[in-house]
Write a structure and sequence with these properties.
Distance between the termini: 61 Å
Radius of gyration: 20 Å
Strand order of the largest sheet: 1-2
Order of helices and strands: HHHHHEEHHHHHH
Largest sheet: 2 strands, antiparallel
Structural class: mainly alpha
Number of helices: 11
Number of strands: 2
Oligomer: single chain
Strand content: under 5%
Amino acid sequence: MLELLADPQIWIAFATLTALELVLGIDNIIFIAILVDKLPPEKREFARKLGLFIAMFMRIGLLLILSWIIGLTAPIFTIFGNEISGRDLVLIAGGLFLLWKSVGEIHQSMEGIEGGASSAVKSTMTAVILQIMLVDLVFSLDSIITAVGMVDEVAVMIAAVITSVGLMMVFAGPIGRFVSAHPTIKMLALSFLVVVAVVLIAEGFDNHVPKGYIYSAMAFSVVVEMLNIRMRKRAAQPVHLHSPYSADAADGIPDKQV
């Protein structure tokens, strides 16, 4: 262990892998932020931290069964000339779930029923955590397979995962609250998740799409929208989205429709 700590190459690999885990965790943070909005405000922070804890332990667990992870890349069957492996099936299933969830959230926000009358208010802590676990599995599998190709030492991978999740916990709360408070940013986030879902499905069919292009486009969109928000600060109130949860509506007091 001391030899690992004294090796500068190990520290470089650790820093690189931590940065990679943070980048790959952006979509995870956004998805958790969208999901916890379905819960009462007092439960959101707990659900957010629990979701990230689950993500950390799932990634560490996957690292401890690397032989099984590597085995998932072996072809199972062929469809339309593409060899489909266990990893591909997980990516396709996860992409379809993320696509269904994101499009459903966009519909609920733009055309759904407001507050307590919405069927979305029936979401419980258990339902939200189970959905987070499902998408965590997809994102974790993808990032772990990437990590295996970069670093040989499992201890370095585990340290990078723990560090990256710790940093995510620091920033996830402010990011989640910011997304919830700005309707246009929330729509951008949901649109980003739709794109990520399509990319997951494409990669399941062995069509690799460089994620750098996606993250760059998303970052550019966010920067432009941040400028718009700053310009609108003293203007009229921003557009109001239909929230799946309303504290007033839950108390039996219907929200004012906008």
